[in-house]
Amino acid sequence: LVSPSGNLRTMNTVTDDDRTWGALAHLAALSGLLIPFGSMLGPLLVWRTRGQRTAFVGDQALEALNFNISVALALVACLILVWLFVGILLTSVLVIYWIVMTVVATLKAGEGHSYRYPITLRLIK
User: Fold this and answer.
1) What are the pLDDT digits (tens) for 15-56?
2) DSSP letters along 46-110, please?
């Protein structure tokens, strides 16, 4: 990219609006606490409505969607393990991990940093 002064810009700028929508893409996942499948629907809605406008918002919404799909798959595995009595503990740990990582990602995206969740299956590209 070339700035108006003719200098080459090596860093993409992230606007305040981009940071807000990037953070909302992650934060929308917490709607899963109130709405069934809300943890996936929230980021999906942001991705479909705002993700085409800027690369940052699209990237963060897609990352949030993939993370929440991964968590949903892990939750299914934990619920199956309830029969072995380990599932209750694993489910508790997973829910705490999900909330903490969602808050961390929201804060990072709000600062304009592209966040990558650890241990995430990137099923949608």
Assistant:
1) 999 999 999 999 999 999 999 898 999 999 999 999 899 999
2) HHHHHTTT-HHHHHHHHHHHHHHHHHHHHHHHHHHHGGGT-HHHHHHHHHHHHHHHHHHHHHHHH
| Exposure b/e, 81-101, CB count within 10 A at least 16 = b | eeeeeebeebbeebeeebeeb
Show Cβ contacts of residue 109 under 8 Å, excluding neighbours closer than 6 positions. 19, 22, 23, 25, 26, 60, 115
Question: CB neighbours of 8 closer than 8 A, spacing ≥ 6?
Answer: 1, 2
Instruction: Answer yes or no: are the C-beta atoms of 29 and 62 closer than 8 Å.
Output: no
Q: What's the predicted TM-score (pTM) here?
A: 0.85
Q: Is 43 helix (H, G, I), strand (E, B) or coil?
A: helix
CA-nearest of 37, 40, 65, 38 to 51 is: 65
CB 24 within 8 A of CB 15: no
Task: Retrieve residue 121's tokens.
Answer: 């299956």
